[in-house]
């Protein structure tokens, strides 16, 4: 289309343009004289670069002006076309459509210049101001048409050009050349041999400019290499190095796209792209290029002229106009390639494509690129190692969960954010929408038994399963961590109070305690979860964790699944510390008292034993139950003196009763800590001898949870005391986890059915089933049974039908001071239908039974 339009323009202007008169003067330039001038002007070109556009401006305006003034119009047209076409064919090797475009452009430009010169009154052979002016305007329009056509070609090939700048440069070049031509015309008009020094001067100026251009390019190349090097200095990863290399190299060579290909380990595999700025026509470096790079280790220029068929085919595969590729070489050889390519037909450079200078510059760039890539790789490896070590330092190696250190860090961050929200720096209430932060602490039950029985490998697998369940069960904004052993923690920010936290705790408990299949077995473990809230229970992370831990142990002791922190159950709280001090003083003085609750045979309600129950009337806090001060005594190291005090007073009371004819057996509660004390059997037997009480008159009660927590460690103490006649009872039976094997091995005489089952006999069939099962179990093991918490005749009748041996509870008698027991026994009649008499000085129901 463009060629046709130019030819139409030339044909339209041609008759008028070439129809002008020949020069009448003595100086006439003929076509055979003009052809060398036009050829020389095409050879002595000037390259002007504007932004990413490059244009080649010839000195054709010089012979054009001279021809306008001294040659016949037809000779100018013929000489222009023939002279410049010879150069294009011989030196530029142009063929086909590009040559046709240039020929049509030469014709159109020349006809436009001739027509303009004639319209403006220019006359060949007359060298004066009107002629010079007409020639100047003609060559300006000539240059404007050239810029317009080149701009259209660039646009149609997908490129862009600064046409305004190029038009100004072309016009300025045309005016300069035309001015030189005007000067030359004066010399020709006066003495044609005077033109020779001017031609030499023009040639020297042109050659000097071209030398300056080459030197300038070398300087630009060095400056670009320095810029490239400085930009690659700060790379910290392979990806960043590739990104910097691609963009910097593309900027230095003014290329459209850039890519890096890495050489694979297998020699028969094509080199894949590791990074590309713009998509290419194929996803790998063509083998025509990679093979030549690997063999020659030097840059390869892909020319659009098709002089090298394999490389030209590679150019077509890439889908680009021109390209240059340089190998990336390190100590081990060629490791990859750096490719720069152009999508437009007109690019910066002498030949409209990449050349030897570009190849040399790219080779220099690739040397620095290899250094940058290696540096990025090393820094990335170091960074990955640091990240891996940091991950190891902040995560549990077994479960992959965050560890205690990371949990503490995230908790501190959450507390800081909560502080900012409280200060009005944030409009929202956190990820969960609430203002509070919940800390959940979970500890597994029976995990030690799994480790001891099935081995630590199975225990590890169990922990991994539990960790996975917890991770899947928490909200997305919550954090699950393993603090160590079988202890897990959950951070729940943005919590709306205790209810959501407790709901999550119950859900986590249910998931954690679901049966797990391991080692061919179906394992079930228990769990206890404590919950503490910020800011209600603490304002710093350490305090919240401590109080969640207190709540967790409270859940264990109460055999509850989940428990919210309660300051009253916190032995480490100021109140508990005060209670420990006051308890020590009460033991040293007379601040503790002992009450006794009768234990009767179920058959006839005859009293056979009494249980000693410790009471503490605090001078300021009032009466405190054993649930409040026994844990304090255990943690403060006072449980031994407390137990010894209760046993001493009870034995003394037993001696006093014996003197008045009352001789029941005595039951005293023992803590697990006491049985782990190797000196306790000696102390207990010494007290029995001191008071003259036979060992078979004493029964020590131990809770089921306590006796099964570490039976191997306490079995020696149990057997030593049992060997002297002391009896043992398992208290609160049915609420814990017992082993029949241990029940057979331990010297246990009786089982006490927990009152929670006895109180529910009438309302809950399952409670009755459990109670009946305990009685049957005890009978089969030749053990006695005692039912705690019997408060009415209905429960008594049910227990009689179950053939339970003994009962204890308010239906028989509440706990009473030791001095009241003989009178109470004398006043009651041991018949099943008669209610027990009241205790002197005590209102009925004021002392409910409680655990001690």
Summarize the structure.
With 852 residues, the chain is an alpha/beta fold. The protein has 29 helices and 25 strands.
What report would you give on this structure?
- This protein is of the alpha/beta class and 852 residues long.
- The chain has four domains: 2-190, Arp2/3 complex 21 kDa subunit ARPC3; 224-379, Beta-Lactamase (2-Layer Sandwich), CATH 3.30.450; 404-570, Reverse transcriptase/Diguanylate cyclase domain (Alpha-Beta Plaits, 2-Layer Sandwich); 576-827, EAL domain (TIM Barrel).
- 53% of the residues lie in helices and 17% in strands.
- The chain is built from 29 helices and 25 strands.
- Helix 28 links the parallel strand 23 and strand 24.
- The longest helix has 39 residues, at 356-394.
Name of the CATH architecture of the largest domain: Alpha-Beta Barrel
Mean pLDDT: 79
Oligomeric grouping of the chains: single chain
CATH superfamily of the largest domain: EAL domain
Count every beta strand, where a strand is a DSSP E run of 2 or more residues.
25
Note the overall shape.
rod-shaped
As residue ranges, the low-confidence spans are 344-351, 425-430, 831-852
| Helix-and-strand structural type | alpha/beta
Could you describe the largest sheet, including whether it forms a barrel? Answer: 8 strands, mixed, barrel
């Amino acid at each position: 289309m463009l060629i046709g339009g130019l030819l139409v323009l030339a044909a339209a202007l041609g008759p008028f343009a070439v129809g002008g008169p020949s020069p009448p003067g003595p100086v006439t330039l003929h076509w055979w004289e003009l052809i060398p001038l036009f050829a020389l002007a095409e050879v002595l070109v000037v390259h002007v670069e504007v932004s990413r556009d490059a244009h080649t401006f010839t000195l054709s305006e010089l012979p054009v002006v001279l021809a306008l003034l001294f040659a016949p119009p037809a000779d100018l047209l013929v000489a222009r076309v023939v002279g410049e076409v010879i150069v294009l064919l011989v030196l530029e090797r142009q063929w086909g459509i590009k040559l046709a475009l240039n020929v049509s452009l030469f014709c159109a430009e020349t006809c436009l210049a001739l027509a303009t010169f004639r319209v403006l009154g220019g006359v060949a052979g007359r060298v004066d101001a009107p002629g010079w002016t007409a020639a100047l305007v003609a060559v300006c329009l000539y240059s404007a048409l050239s810029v317009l056509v080149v701009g259209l070609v660039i646009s149609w090939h997908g490129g862009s050009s600064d046409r305004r700048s190029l038009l100004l440069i072309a016009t300025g070049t045309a005016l300069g050349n035309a001015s030189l031509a005007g000067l030359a015309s004066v010399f020709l008009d006066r003495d044609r041999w005077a033109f020779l020094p001017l031609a030499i001067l023009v040639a020297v100026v042109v050659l000097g400019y071209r030398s300056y251009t080459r030197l300038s390019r070398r300087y630009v190349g060095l400056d670009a290499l320095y810029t490239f090097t400085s930009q690659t200095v700060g790379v910290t990863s392979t990806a960043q190095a590739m990104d910097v290399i691609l963009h910097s190299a593309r900027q230095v060579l003014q290329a459209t796209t850039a890519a890096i290909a890495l050489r694979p380990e297998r020699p028969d595999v094509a080199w894949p792209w590791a990074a590309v700025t713009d998509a290419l026509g194929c996803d790998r470096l063509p083998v025509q290029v990679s093979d030549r790079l690997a063999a020659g280790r030097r840059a390869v220029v892909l020319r659009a002229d098709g002089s090298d068929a394999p490389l030209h085919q590679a150019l077509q595969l890439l889908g680009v106009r021109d390209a240059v590729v340089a190998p990336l070489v390190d100590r081990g050889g060629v490791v990859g390639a750096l490719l720069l390519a152009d999508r437009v037909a007109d690019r910066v450079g002498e030949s409209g494509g990449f050349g030897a200078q570009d190849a040399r510059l790219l080779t220099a760039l690739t040397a620095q690129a290899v250094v940058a890539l290696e540096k990025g790789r090393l820094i990335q490896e170091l960074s990955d190692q640091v990240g891996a070590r940091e991950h190891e330092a902040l995560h549990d190696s077994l479960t992959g969960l965050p560890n205690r250190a990371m949990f503490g860090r995230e908790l501190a961050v959450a507390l800081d954010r909560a502080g900012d929200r409280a200060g009005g720096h944030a409009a929202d209430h956190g990820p969960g929408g609430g203002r509070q932060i919940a800390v959940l602490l979970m500890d597994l039950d029976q995990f030690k038994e799994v480790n001891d029985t099935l081995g630590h490998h199975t225990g590890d697998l169990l922990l991994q399963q539990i960790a996975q369940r917890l991770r899947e069960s928490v909200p997305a904004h919550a954090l699950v961590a393993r603090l160590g052993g079988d202890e897990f923690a959950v951070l729940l920010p943005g919590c709306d109070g205790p209810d959501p936290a407790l709901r999550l705790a119950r859900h986590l408990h249910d998931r954690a305690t679901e049966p797990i299949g391991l080692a061919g077995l179906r394992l079930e473990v228990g769990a206890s979860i404590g919950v503490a809230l910020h800011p209600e229970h603490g304002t710093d992370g350490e305090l919240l964790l401590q109080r969640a831990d207190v709540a967790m142990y409270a859940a264990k002791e109460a055999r509850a699944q989940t428990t919210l922190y309660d300051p009253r159950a916190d032995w480490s709280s100021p109140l508990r510390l005060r209670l420990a001090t006051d308890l020590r003083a009460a033991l040293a003085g007379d601040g503790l008292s002992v009450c006794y609750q009768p234990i009767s045979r179920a058959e006839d309600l005859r009293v056979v034993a009494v249980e000693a129950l410790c009471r503490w009337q605090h001078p300021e806090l009032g009466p405190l139950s054993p649930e409040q001060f026994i844990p304090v005594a255990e943690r403060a190291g006072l449980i031994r003196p407390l137990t010894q005090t209760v046993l001493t007073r009870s034995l003394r009371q037993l001696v006093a009763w014996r003197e008045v004819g009352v001789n029941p057996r005595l039951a005293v509660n023992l803590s697990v800590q006491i049985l782990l004390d190797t000196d306790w059997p000696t102390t207990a037997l010494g007290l029995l001898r001191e008071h003259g009480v036979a060992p078979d008159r004493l029964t020590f009660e131990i809770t089921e949870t306590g006796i099964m927590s570490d039976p191997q460690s306490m079995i020696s103490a149990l057997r030593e005391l049992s060997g002297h006649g002391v009896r043992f009872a398992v208290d609160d039976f049915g609420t814990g986890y017992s082993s029949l094997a241990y029940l057979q091995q331990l010297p246990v005489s009786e089982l006490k059915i927990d009152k929670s089952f006895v109180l529910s006999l009438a309302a809950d069939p399952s409670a009755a089933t459990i109670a009946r099962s305990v009685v049957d179990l005890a009978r089969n093991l030749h053990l006695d049974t005692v039912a705690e918490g019997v408060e009415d005749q209905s429960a008594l009748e049910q227990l009689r039908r179950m053939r339970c041996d003994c009962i204890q509870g308010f239906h028989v008698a509440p706990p009473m001071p030791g001095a009241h027991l003989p009178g109470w026994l004398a006043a009651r009649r041991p018949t099943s239908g008669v209610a027990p008499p009241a205790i002197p000085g005590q209102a009925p129901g004021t002392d409910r039974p409680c655990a001690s």
